[in-house]
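Good morning,

Attaching, inline, the backbone tokens for the sequence recovery test we're adding to the shared suite. The designed sequence is right after.
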């Protein structure tokens, strides 16, 4: 079974050196989708109101085969924000 590597970009680059075995690219995509709640935990209030976390999937040859980005954007709506 092929191995895929899931690199995380959240303002810092975290290269996956272990990877996970997945049947194919679609199964690797499913892993990214299932991990979005874990990815959301990387977003912290101390980092501001506009953030993005990207997961890039590489195959065994190192080619990028899939990317997914979770974006958080917020703004205050009360008068104190003015």
């Amino acid at each position: 079974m092929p191995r895929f590597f899931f690199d995380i970009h959240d303002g810092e680059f975290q290269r996956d050196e272990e990877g996970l075995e997945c049947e194919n690219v679609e199964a690797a995509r499913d892993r990214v989708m299932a991990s979005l709640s874990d990815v959301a935990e990387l977003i912290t209030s101390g980092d501001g109101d506009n953030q993005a976390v990207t997961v890039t999937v590489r195959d065994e040859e190192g080619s990028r085969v899939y990317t997914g980005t979770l974006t958080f954007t917020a703004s205050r709506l009360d008068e104190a924000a003015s």
